[in-house]
Amino acid sequence: MQSLVSLDLSQNKLSGEIPSGMSNLTSLSYLNLSYNSLSGRIPSGRQLDTLNSENPSLMYIGNSGLCGPPVHKNCSGNDPSIHGDLESSKQEFEPLTFYFGLVLGFVVGLWMVFCALLFKKTWRIAYFWLFDEVYNRVYVFEVVKWASFTKNTDIE
């Protein structure tokens, strides 16, 4: 189909959108889609823009639902076919890739901390000393709060 030179689909009662693959037909020199029931945005591409260089809108005449260049009807912002070409070039959010990266980052980070504590004795001593200090402070804080609570409420 890449070697297609001429395509006349006029007055065939075709409906729907023009396939975006039409702009990939590089050897196409003549295209006529007039007087059908086509709708949606006309695919952009250098190939379709160069056909019928005198008046490119003539090959789409009789299709009141078509919009965008070369016809003089602007597409509305809500038309999903407007953004079709733009969305294909943008990357979409893929949850599987995101969660894989999240888990991989967590595992690598955890192993880095574990290995640092395993092989660096000074870091290991400092880490566990800090852990003991935090534990002792929380324990003392809770004992003092419990003592003041029981003193104020007469619970023994």
TrEMBL record:
Record-linked InterPro entries: Leu-rich_rpt, LRR_dom_sf, RLP23-like
Database matches in Pfam families: LRR_1 (PF00560)
One Gene Ontology cellular component: membrane
Principal location: membrane
Membrane protein topology class: Single-pass type I membrane protein
Transmembrane intervals: 96-119
Location(s) in or outside the cell: Membrane
UniProt entry keywords in alphabetical sequence: Glycoprotein, Membrane, Signal, Transmembrane, Transmembrane helix
Domain of life: Eukaryota
Name of protein: Uncharacterized protein
